[in-house]
Amino acid sequence: MQKIQNYDKVLAYIGIITGCILNLTLFLNNLYHPIGLVLTIQMTCVSYLWLRNHLNTSIITKPVRRVAQKWNVIFIVLVTILALVTVFVSVDSLERPLWIFIVLSIIPSLIVVQYFFLQPTENILIVEVAVLAIAIALSGITVFPHNGGDTWAHLDNANIILKNKTVQAILGSYHDYPLYPAIIAVLSSITQIDIVKIALFLNCLVAILCPLLMFYLSSGFYKSLYQRLILVLLILGSKWFIYWLMMVVSMAVGMLIFYLLIAFLFHRSHSNTFLPETIILLLVIGFIPFFHPIITMAGIFLLSSIWSINVIFSDNQQNITKHSLIGLVIYIIIVMLSQWMYYGEYTFFNAIRALVMAIFREESTIGLAVSYRNAITYTLDSLNFFFLLSLAGLEILRQVQIKTNELNFYTGITGCVFLVFGYTVQFINFQEMLPHRWLLFSTLLLVFPASSTFVQLLQDETKTGRIVSLILVTIYFFTGLTNTEANRDQPLYDKTIAEHYELTDSEYMGLLKLEEIIQIKDVPVRVDFRLWDYLKLVDNGKNQVGYWQKMKLNGFNGIFPIRNVYFERYSLIGNPVFDTNYDPSTISKFYDSGDMQLLEKTAVK
Amino acid sequence: MSLLLEMLSTTIFLLLAFLPGLLLALLLFPLDEFGWQLGVGVGLSLVILGTIALFLSLIPFGNGITFLSLVVTLISLNSLFTVMLWRWRWKIIKQLFQFAPENTRVNIAIAIIFLPFLVVIPFLLQIKRESFSEFYIVDSYPTPWPWQRHVALTEPISVTVVVVSHELQANHFSIKLLTNEMVIQTFNLGTIEAGKTLEQLVYIPPRTQSAQQFALRLYKDEITKPYRLLDFWLKATPTTPTNTIIPLLSTPKPFATYPPTISSTTTATPTPIDTSTPTPQLSATYTISPTATPKPTFIYIPTPSTPILVKLLPTTTTSALPIHGLFLMSQGITVSQEGRVLYSPYVIPSNTELAFSFRLIGSGVEPKLVGIGVPGGLFRSELGPYQIDSNGKSFQNLKLFFPQAGTFTLFVQIQAQSGEWRILEGESGEPQEGINIVVE
User: Fold this and answer.
1) Do A562 and B132 touch (CB under 8 A)?
2) Between A and B, how many CB-CB pairs are < 8 A?
3) ipTM metric
4) d(CA B10, CA B339)
C-alpha cells in the first residue's frame, strides 16, 4: 500500500522536474507555443502535492429536497428563450456579437444555479442541457457563411449519393469512407428534407446525444447528480467539442461513435450482462472503418489502451474483461485493414506514403511545426483545454494512488495516451495524422476525471464552492466558445479563415450554376481558388476552369466584393498559366448572385 | 394544413429511420434507464442507417439507395426487432408506458416547452436565411457567345438574361442595358415571386466602338442602386467598313470597384464607386442667356456648375461647307437626358439639359475644336483640340442647356485651324441631317 501511495508523489515530482527542464529547453530554443502546456502539467503536479489530502475527501451527496416545481419550469423557459435568441441572432450573421457568447456562457451557470437552489429532477436537467447543446451547435454552424470547405464537400458527396443512388459514386478520398455523407443522404431521402437541414439536424443530434449517453453511463460510477451535471457541462463547453460541432464533417458523428464505444465498454464493466454490449461493439467496430480512418484508429487506441492498462494494473478485481478486449482489438485491426485493401482506393496508399514520408523526412520536423498564431493567442486559445487537463490530471494522479473509480482511472490514462499522441504528431508536424482529432478524443476522455476533481474541490454544499463553481463554469464556456480555433466568425480576432474557405448560399448556388454551364458550354472560366478547388473535379480535363492567382481588385469590379479577404489574396502565386495581369477589356462577367460574380477571360485577342 | 401534413409525414419517416436502433436498444438493454436506451438507440440508428446505405450500394441487384428501397428495408428491420421485442421483452414494453404519477405533471410541462422549441428552430433558420437573386446570361444569338469572338459593328446580337429569385418575398425587378454609361434600354420585369425564374431577351444595338462594354443592371424594387451587375465586352471584327483594322482601345475605361466594406447579404450590392477617370474636356456645358447681349458669347466650363444664361437665338441655317477627311460616323448623334437615352422625336420641356454623344472618324485632320450646336455659332457646345485618326474618336456628354421654347436643329461641327466653323459630312459623304430638338 505504501508503495502505491508513493507512485502519485513520484509522478508529481517527475512532472515538476521534467517540466522545468522542458520549459528551459523550449525557452532557449525560442519555441514558446508549447510552454503553456508544460506549465499546465507542472502546475497540476504542484497542485496535486498541495491538495493531495483534500482530494481524498468524499463527495457529499446532497439529500433530495422538494422545491416547488414551478420555479424549475420558469428556469426551463428562461433557458429556452435565451437559447432561441442566440440561435436567431447567429443564423447567417457575418459576425456574432460578443454578447451572444456571454449569453451562451451564462446558460450553463443558470442550470448550475438551478441545481444548487431548486433541486430539479434529472429530466429537467437533461432537457436544459439538450437546449443548451442545440444552441451551441446551431449558433456555431449557422454563422455566415454557411457552405464551404469540408462542410461543402460532405454536402456535395451526399448529393452525389442521392443522384447516383450508391455510395460508390463518391470520388476522391471520401470514396473510401463514404458513410457520413451516406447517412445524410439516407435521412434526406427518407424524410424528403433538404440535405443542409439534415446535416444541421445531425449535428444537433450529436450535441444532445454525447452528453446524454455520458450522463446515463456515469450514473453507474458517480452517485452525485451534481457530478453528472458537471460532466455533461464539461463536455459541452470544451473547445474541441464545440469545434467539431461547428462543421458538417464526419468527425461530429465520429464523436458519437467514439462515445458509443466508451459507453458499451464501461457499461459492461458494471452490468451483469456481457453479450448485448459485445454484439453492439462488434456491429459498431465493423461499421467505423467505412466511416473515417481516424475514428478507426481512435477505436484501436481506445481498446488497446484499456487492455494495456488492464494488463499492467490488473489485480484480478478489474471488471473490464481483458481477453475479450484484445479480441476486439484484433477484430478491429482485421476489419480496418480489409476495408483499406479490398474496398478503399486511397487510404491504404496514402497512409503508407505519409508514414514513409514522416520516417524519411530529411528536414527538421520540429522547425516545421510552427503555429500560424502567435504564442500568446495560441496559449489563450488553449486555456479551456488546459483547465480541463489540469482538473483531469489531479484525478489521474489520485487514481494512480487509490484506483477507486475505474471509469476515471481508465479514461484518464487513455485520455493521456491520446493527448501525448496528439501533441507528438503536432510537434513533429505529422499533419496527416490530424492532431486536432486526437486532442478531441483526449478531451472526450479527460472530462470524466476532470468532473470528479471539480466536484471534489468545489463541493456544492459550501457557499464558496458554489460561487467559484459558477465563475469557473462561465469562464470555461466562454473560453471554449470564443477561442480562435472554435469559431468561424472569430469574434474576438478576425474572420479571415472563414472568408478564405467557406461559401455563402449565393456563392454555393452560383457554383452549382457554373458547374451546369461548364458541362453544357465550352466556356473558359476563371474563378476564385476555392471554387476552382471544387470545380476542377467537374472540368473533365478540358482545362476550362482556371483560377485567378493574383486578384488586383483595386480599380476592378471584381468577384466577392463584400469580403475583405479578396483584396489581399496574393498567396496563390506559382502557376504562370493562370497568373492574372488582366486587361479589363478582355474579361466578361456573365453571372452575378451577389457575393459571386463569375468572370470569363475571353478568347478574343 | 399542408404544413401540418408535411410535419406529420416528416415525423413519421424520422421515426421510421430511428426506430431500428431504439428497438435494438430496448431489446439489448431492457433494464436500463430510458435515457440510456434513447441515447444508445439513436446512436445505433445512425450506425444501422449507414450500414443499410452500404448494403444497398454494394448488393449486385436492386436499385441502390432509393426512397422505396430504404423504406422497405427499414420496415423489415423494424418488424423483425418488434417481433423479437414482443417475444422476449413484453414486460419491458409495458413498463415503458407506466409513468410515475409524481413526475407526470413536470414531464408534461417539460414537453410543452421543449417540443415547441424543437419546432420553432427550423422556422428560425428559414426566416434568417440568406436572400439573394441570381442574374446571369443564359444564351445568346448568334452563338457562340459574342464576347468570345469578333462581331461586326452592325451584326445583330441578342442575349437572354435570367433572373432567379431566392428572396424571401416577391419583389419588383427591372433591367437596364447601358453602354458608355448611358442607359439605352429599360425592361420592366414586373413582380417575381420568391423561388421563380424569369427570362428576358435583350437586343444589343449596333456598336460604335471597336471594343465596347455593355452593362446589364438589375434593379430590385424602388432601390436606385443596381442590385446585380453583368458586363460584357464586344469586339469589332478586324475588317471595318473602311477596311481598317481597329485595335483594342489602348486605355479602356476601367470597371467600377467596390469599397472593401462588409455589408449584410440581405441588402443590395453596394453602389460601385466609379473609378473611371473623368475627362474634363468632355464635360463642358454651354448655355445662352436670353437677356445677354445679342453677340454670342462662348464660355468654357470644365466641370458642371451653375448654368450661365446667355441669349438663345434659334436658327435653322445650314450653310457650312463639307470637310474632306473627317466624318461623322453612321450611327449619328445619341441624345440623352440625365443618363437616359432619348429617341426621336426629341421633345423636351424648357429648362432642360441634354447630353450629346457621337463618334468621328478621319485621317490626320486636326480640328481646333469639335462641337455640336446650331450653325452660326450662337448656341454651341465645343471641345478640343483633337487629333482624330482612322481609329476614330468618341465624343461623349457634350451638354447643352435649353432654357426656353423653340425648335433647334443641331449639327456636329468642327472649327478648322483657320478658325472657321464647318458642319461635318456623314461617313459616305452625305450631308449631315442634324437633329431637331423641340423645346416646349
Assistant:
1) no
2) 308
3) 0.82
4) 54
